[in-house]
Amino acid sequence: MRTRRRTPAADERHVLAHLRSTVWGPAEFLGLPPWRLVGDGLLVGTLGTAAIVGVTLLGAWTGSPVLGDGEAGLVCAAALVVRLLLVRAGRALVGIVGVLAVSLALHAPQAAAGVVLAEQGRTRPVVVTSVHGGTSPSGGAARYLCSVADPAGVPLAVLIRRGCGQATRPGDTLAVVYDPRGRVPSRGAVAESDAGEALRGLAGWAAALVAASAVAVVRSFRLAGPDGHHGADAPGRP
What we know:
alpha+beta
């Protein structure tokens, strides 16, 4: 009994389909993905994003350096990536989620510190001792940082950006907001700063991470898993 041999063109198509499935995920459904699958993806992305931001906020609020400095957020980012790898999501999408998750974890400490200062910070005047300025790495407008000291002349171990500009000179007075419990560093005071405004800078990263995670989960759908059972009861299953 003769067995059919694959032609080179068929073998090439099979290899390309396998690579496409490995890189972007198989997405073995017809038409729009089932709502349950979309819900699972959004849940995974939302939980991962909430964990990254939540542990950082908790660390800043409690004064825990391990949580507030971003290390715990990076652990949560790694856990999200592992979760996507376990469902065999496309490697390219897993990589995109990993980059977004790490970026969110690195930006979260500044936002968390802003929340603490907005809720429990106090304002006090400080004296400028020196001004450091130069162009930004991207060649944009110059950025200036001021070294400051309290009215008693004790230097503060922080550089102030807000309120520090080209016209600022040593001896000038700036207003800074500080945490009486010393949980987060001081920063230049701004008018009408609140917790929502402090977290607004994370909105773009968070939305992108949720969306990328959802797409990765949706495209990981397979008709049959390694054990031969069907992945989900998708209405669009061929």
